[in-house]
Design brief:
The chain has five helices and no strands. The chain is mostly helical and about 150 residues long. The protein has one domain. It is flat, with a radius of gyration of 24 Å. About 5% of the residues are buried.
């Protein structure tokens, strides 16, 4: 007579452990692929920056410099996103300071873009206000970071 196997709590724990491992592997794999894609995108941006140098004689230095500055700030924002993803892989959590750094780079890039175009003063003041708030948050998160608490600084 065949005996039925009764599920125990150990079977449930095994499934949870398997699901946790699968999830971690999946998240790490997707994060690694995202880092590779962003690095490829940055590489393409560097190539485009170099190729844009040919346009200096045709369209003038100032317009090419404007585009180069904006493109460079975008690449710096990508670099901050890559740093955020790397810290997630290393620490298993996202560091708020890296997110704030990314936001600061993007907002400063937006303000730099306004420098070369017509802009409304309200938009500049709003951008400056947000940047000041983010700088304040950056200082607070650095001061009260779990990595620095307990140091004799």
């Amino acid at each position: 007579m065949p005996t039925e196997r009764v599920s125990t709590a150990d079977d449930g724990d095994r499934w949870l452990q398997l699901a946790d491992r699968f999830y971690l592997v999946l998240v790490r794999s997707l994060t690694g692929l995202a880092i590779i894609a962003l690095c490829a995108w940055m590489g393409a941006g560097v190539i485009a920056l170099v190729l844009d140098l040919r346009q200096v004689l045709a369209s003038g230095w100032a317009s090419v410099a404007e585009r180069a500055i904006i493109d460079t700030l975008i690449m710096l924002a990508l670099l901050e996103v890559i740093r955020t993803l790397q810290s997630y892989l290393k620490l298993g959590r996202v560091r708020v300071t890296f997110i704030l750094d990314t936001a600061l780079v993007v907002l400063i890039g937006e303000l730099m873009g306004l420098w070369f175009r017509e802009y409304a003063p309200e938009k500049v003041l709003l951008g400056l206000g947000v940047i000041l708030v983010l700088v304040g948050l950056r200082i607070v998160t650095t001061r009260f970071s779990p990595e620095t608490t307990g140091d004799a600084r």
